[in-house]
């Protein structure tokens, strides 16, 4: 059946009435052919140019496979040049891209609802280890939470290992980062921090254009934007590495990697 499509192209030229009845994802619209073909360079312009056959539903209305509620804003823009309300910007942007409404797309891309996620995803893809690190933090936090099931908060001590750091290159590959003698400043843990090993070793990363601190700030902000209640404190640098030598674990010098306490608050119900 589909074999004849290309041959039938000229035969399938379609004549459209001046007033068009549309069925967009089940929602019905009436508009004019002029409105739909105002800009012949758009997909809607092409669809109703007569060069392509448009599918019709059982009542003869031209069918467009899109979300009807979103299409209402597209139609409003075609009719009056009106922009969607703030809450609908994301959906309408998706449809505007689909229908090739370049002017509308460009206008919407200047709005924070589109621009901020775009910049953020650029940041995330540039530092693509951020997603991996967030996953590791969450997995470690969940594991630690199982050991203290009544605590609504968990602190993950992580060491950010950066290959741009010269001391790291020498020491870190063979050791587990730790620190000792750091004064207790947090009210969360009253236990001793002495000689505590990092719960999580991040990397090795190659952070050449941003500092470890900016990297950690970026991932904390990303976690907050995903709905987590999370904060971070810098707690110094790795000054005590534990190395495996044969069957023994021995204490050695630190690698200087930056240590952070990531504090995650679970939204736990108080009653169990
Ligand atoms: Zn270390």
From TrEMBL:
SUPFAM superfamilies: POZ domain. It comes from the Eukaryota. Signal peptide: none annotated. InterPro entries: BTB/POZ_dom, SKP1/BTB/POZ_sf, T1-type_BTB. Residues 18-116 form the BTB domain. Pfam families: BTB_2. GO terms for biological process: protein homooligomerization. This is BTB domain-containing protein.
